[in-house]
Sequence to fold (236 residues):
Amino acid sequence: DVVMTQSPLSLPVTLGQPASISCRSSQSLVYSDGNIYVNWFQQRPGQSPRRLIYKVSNRDSGVPERFSGSGSGTDFTLKISRVEAEDVGVYYCMQGTHWPLTFGGGTKVEIK
Amino acid sequence: QITLKESGPTLVKPTQTLTLTCTLSGFSLSTRGVGVGWIRQSPGKALEWLAFIYWDDDKRYSPSLKRRLTITKDTSKNQVVLTMTNMDPVDTATYYCAHSIEDYNNRPNYFDYWGRGTLVTVSS
Fold:
């Protein structure tokens, strides 16, 4: 199975400041078609997960522009350009290149 | 508008079989390219993928749980059913179903819509 390792585990951020979450995979996530199937999800307290980013860097409809995804091969990053109060929650990366589908352990974003 | 809703028992006893239903709205699993997956989350823990079913009835399972899981679809009822045998207290979790749709490369873009989840507690 592909192991998705996220860091940090917890990320205290000042409102208006940037935040960055790392996700590393135990093997390359480049599919035979050349695409990389990495998604990012946000889970606010008490809510279901919500997809923010698909295929590394594509923002889902309605997702604020302050969220961006990047990466290649085995290293991926989710960035929030200026953290807002509504961004508090746990963020998960997920790979969809290889079966079984696997999620990272999560990064908790909180306000300082 | 795409929505999914999970339903099933909130409490099951150890060794029993759990049956969960995901009722789909706004889309059909008979449509080419559509898929539905099940994901669970133990209290305070990370997400864990369990099973996936495609529009053409192709199915995938988590290897660690494969012998206990069965996923099926009923397109006439627009439902996806997950059964898990031999339940144990460690299976206590919120169970989610989620929608997927293939992109132009015929690869699923997984889990763009999620249900609210259903909490299942395993206890005697």
Q: What stands out?
A: The mean pLDDT of chain B is 96.
